[in-house]
């Protein structure tokens, strides 16, 4: 038989069941949390008109778009994130009343150079509140961030918050120009925790062309210490008016909520959080698992008051959260909060011979109707083979219907962990197993 | 502000929350059913190498592929279905032990001419058992089909089963050539319920070039009547050897399982079921909602023993089910088994003024921690506006924290349906609402 070599595209991957089983559990928890916060689901197409996506991600981002001409000679592209499609949707449908809160879990595509842990297709999970400029919305997003991690079972985490207006105020203080120059400096500051102070200083001087005084001004700002209240008081002294002042006021309002929610032990002000993206306009934040700091931020987000206006023609404020699904899953597995698994069922119903196979099928049907998940072995293979199948899948129980048991209206239930075997009347099987299966 | 017109590509659509909320409920039920049958989740990339997809869907299908050249000059295409990617995965990963049963819910893309109810992006939901040629596997898929509909609350449905080998046997009997000619005739037979006998006869004569005797042979076959057992006995007389004989034997084995599962009232033999796709090799079937026959089949599938071999180099038998997600959702809404909805929460926590907003946020936090889903209005808008927001979203309760209530450690709870209002101590609020909210 001639064959085509089975393979995936470079930079793409299959999620096999061992990964998908804990991933689905994680996503079910995440969706439940979103819904408890009244976020509603939304789904947008994978393909958008290129003009919808263009000009939103900077030159570098734009070069990574999977764009092509479709059969109708339209320039189209696979979505790059979930935020721009949300902005389009909010502008497009008048029936969506504001404030509007939605979540979306879906893949995005970026033609990046593949490297360890970086793929060209990956899933994003975003939640956003659209239509409120009030810090109450930002606080709601931070409360959500904490609940997501709480519900996933993470005990030890920290969320570090900053405000882009404060960073921009700092840029004005040290005379860095708005726009490209500022964006470059902020991107470098964002790398500080990864690359260290020395390398950061070098980049600020050589790449952004800052003077020693300007660099010193940045590190003076970044070295502001103390708890959140102390930091805010020190910032009061630095910014008396303009955007920087507004940023400090926003942070103070935000932390009133944080304290009322008793989240001030988890959420702290970190003046070095800058976020890479240039559409943020206010609050920015990142969440870290304290026991796994090496894997980087597992969530992040912020306020972007300018993006929706591009489609709407008038400014619509918005604030959001984005979860790094793959990184979070990796973290939860490493923390043993989730287990990789090969099966979603704990019970295998075997087939003794072709003659009795329909009878076995009915036993499986009874179990399922009784709420016990089970696999039915589809064919009369040797029993040893069927047992090995159950063991490889990590199942706990195997049901065997030999001719004797069948004659007595019973089945043999074997506990694969202990090796114990028991004859159980068919009618009692659901009760017997539902008490034992987790 | 200059703006870009917000719009979706022709043939694509957004799923707004009113549709997504019941859709997510439906999918959660479907996933739970798949898992009770021990099907494990799988996820494959949206983009595949073109050579993986080519030659699988016939000339017409292939012309609908969204294919393009990627940044690395590779010919790639968006997936057209979930079956070919499954076949690739089974051939690619030795660690997947057979029999392997997986489900996948994901969008596929076909550049069809858009028309009412037909889109270029739509979701498929597939379940397959790979690695068993035994009719026990086909029976398992049919049991699953029934459970999916049972669990979705559909009381009145029918599943019509046939076998491709029987149809091929018929083609040999009336001297229609294997391959292109046979495929054309079967595609026409498949249209019979839609276009009627007269038009079918016309197509068979004019398009497939059949003689009057050949057409008569087909309708003689299709008019075989009686219950399943009677039909099988009549087929025994028609097919004494060859593939047709094997098909009848398979059907007889399959219906042994159907009877043992007491599903013979729901699953019947229908000799006109042919399915359009040419990769089916044995059992084929379609499921219909009896109260909504106009919407067509809501599920369908069958056995395809040849497809995986294209990637594996040796034959691997497989049988599967495919759910028409959109059609099913439409049906469940029409049957009032699911409701369109604008909100996933029944409770809105309002904000009385900026000063007390953090206190309101804490009330929302208490409710959520107590398991009561609620929305927190993000900002101190006029109360009337906040109430209208709750009404538009179809919520049942609104919480108000006026200064008096706050002083007393209470909140006002207003039932939007009855208009009744009650002051409830903060500490009793979770209990008060969790008893009332569905």
**Low-pLDDT runs of chain A:** none
The helix fraction of chain A, in percent, is 40-55%
Question: What assembly state would you assign to the polypeptide chains in this entry?
Answer: homodimer
What structural class should be given to the helix and strand makeup of chain A? alpha+beta
Q: How confident overall, as mean pLDDT of chain A? A: 93
How many domains comprise the coordinates of chain A?
Answer: 2
Within the CATH hierarchy, at the fold level, what is the topology of the largest domain in chain A?
BirA Bifunctional Protein, domain 2
Largest interchain contact: A-B, 111 and 110 residues
The CATH superfamily of the largest domain in chain A turns out to be Bira Bifunctional Protein, Domain 2
Question: CATH top level of the largest domain in chain A?
Answer: Alpha Beta
Give the strand line-up of the largest sheet of chain A: 1-5-6-11-10-9-7-8
State the major sheet of chain A: 8 strands, mixed
Count of strand segments of chain A: 16
What does this structure look like?
- Two copies of one chain form a homodimer.
- Chain A has helices at 17-36, 50-53, 58-63, 83-92, 135-151, 164-173, 180-190, 192-206, 212-222, 228-238, 242-260, 309-312, 325-334, 357-369, 383-392, 403-408, 429-436, and strands at residues 40-41, 47-49, 67-69, 75-78, 100-109, 121-130, 157-163, 267-269, 283-289, 299-303, 318-324, 347-349, 374-376, 397-400, 410-415, 421-425.
- In chain A, helix 5 crosses helix 11 (242-260).
- Chain A has two domains: 17-334, BirA Bifunctional Protein, domain 2 (2-Layer Sandwich); 347-436, Rossmann fold.
- Chain A is an alpha+beta fold.
- The two termini of chain A are 45 Å apart.
- Chains A and B meet through helix 1, strand 1, strand 2, helix 4 and strand 5 of A and helix 1, strand 1, strand 2, helix 4 and strand 5 of B.
């Amino acid at each position: 038989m001639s064959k085509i070599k089975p393979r995936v595209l470079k930079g793409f991957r299959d999620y096999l069941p061992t990964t998908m089983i804990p991933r689905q559990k994680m996503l079910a928890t995440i969706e439940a949390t979103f819904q408890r916060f009244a976020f509603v689901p939304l789904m947008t197409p994978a393909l958008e008109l290129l003009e919808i996506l263009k000009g939103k991600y900077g030159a570098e981002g734009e070069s990574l778009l999977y764009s092509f001409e479709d059969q109708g000679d339209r320039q189209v592209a696979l979505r790059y994130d979930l935020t721009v499609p949300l902005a389009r949707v909010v502008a497009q449908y008048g029936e969506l009343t504001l404030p509007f809160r939605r979540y979306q879990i879906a893949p995005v595509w970026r033609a990046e150079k593949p490297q360890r842990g970086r793929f060209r297709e990956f899933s994003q999970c975003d939640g956003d509140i659209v239509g409120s400029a009030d810090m109450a919305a930002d606080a709601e997003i931070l409360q959500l961030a904490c609940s997501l991690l709480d519900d996933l079972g993470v005990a030890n985490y920290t969320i570090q918050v900053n405000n882009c207006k404060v960073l921009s105020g700092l840029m004005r203080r040290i005379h860095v120009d708005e726009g490209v120059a500022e964006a470059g400096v902020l991107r470098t500051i964002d790398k500080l925790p990864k690359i260290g102070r020395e390398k950061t200083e070098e980049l600020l001087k050589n790449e952004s062309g800052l003077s020693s005084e300007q660099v010193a001004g940045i590190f003076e700002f970044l070295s502001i210490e103390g708890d959140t209240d102390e930091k805010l008081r020190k910032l009061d002294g630095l910014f008396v008016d303009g955007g920087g002042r507004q940023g400090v006021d926003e942070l103070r309002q935000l932390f009133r909520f944080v304290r009322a929610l008793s989240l001030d032990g988890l959420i702290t002000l970190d003046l070095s959080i800058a976020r890479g993206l240039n559409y943020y306009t206010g609050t920015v934040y990142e969440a870290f698992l304290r026991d796994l700091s090496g894997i980087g931020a597992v969530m992040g987000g912020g306020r972007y008051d300018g993006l929706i206006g591009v489609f709407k023609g008038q400014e619509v404020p918005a604030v959001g959260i984005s979860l790094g699904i793959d990184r979070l899953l990796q973290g939860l597995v490493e923390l043993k909060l989730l287990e990789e698994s090969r099966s979603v069922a704990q019970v295998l119903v075997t087939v003794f011979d072709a003659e009795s196979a329909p009878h076995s099928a009915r036993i499986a049907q009874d179990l399922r109707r009784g709420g016990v998940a089970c696999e039915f072995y589809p064919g009369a293979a040797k029993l040893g083979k069927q047992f090995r199948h159950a063991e490889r899948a990590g199942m706990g129980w195997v049901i065997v219907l030999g001719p004797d048991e069948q004659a007595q209206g019973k089945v043999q239930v074997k506990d694969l962990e202990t090796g114990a075997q028991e004859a159980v009347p068919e009618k009692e099987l659901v009760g017997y197993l539902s008490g034992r299966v987790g």
